[in-house]
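Sorry to interrupt, but I need a hand with the structure work. Go ahead and set the record down below:
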Amino acid sequence: MKVNYFLGVAAFLCLALTSCDSDNDNQVQTELNRLDNYLDSVKTAAPVYSAAKWDEIQKEYNETIVKVQEGGKELSTAANAKLEEVKTEYNKLKEKYNTYIREEEAKNDYKRNLRKSLFGEQLVGDDLQFEFVNANNALSVYERFVDNVKKNKEEYTREDWDEIKVLYEALDTRKNEIEKDLKSSDNLKIARKKVEFAGVKAIRRPLSKVKENEDAKQ
């Protein structure tokens, strides 16, 4: 009788443990499927390659992996296979984001250096307000800008010329705002610098586009 009792208890415990393992496995599969769907939604949505967006993706991934691996429970073969599949997809996405972010950082560094060469230590923000330009320094700002463009005109790429055009137009907008305070002599000298710039841009900007097209064909 006692033997039958102990056998019954053992069978019950075995079933209970099997049930717990099964429940844990189902929970793991659910979490991994949810993460997999999330990564798929990131890939199919309009890409937002920013450090902030990557932090969001990384947080979602890390929190799910912690849930899956908590307690050191052994995963089933199917759960392990799904885990490796999700890790592979995550690493592909990680490499894509890291590559794009590095490229953007390099572009931003180059843009800052280009602006520095044209305007010196004056900080040119993304708003392009040019509030540092006033009636007393407008002429020197134009002189530095145009002289540097002339000096480096053969080195500029099409993207450089696009940036230079945007900066020049913003500088002109600021000049118009303070024009009433400018000396007549300074205004005349600025007008001459504007003619110099227009001549250089008219020749070099189209040539940079031609070079870009030729490089693309190689």
Observations:
- The first helix runs from residue 2 to 44.
- The two ends are 89 Å apart (CA to CA).
- The chain has two domains: 2-106, 120-217.
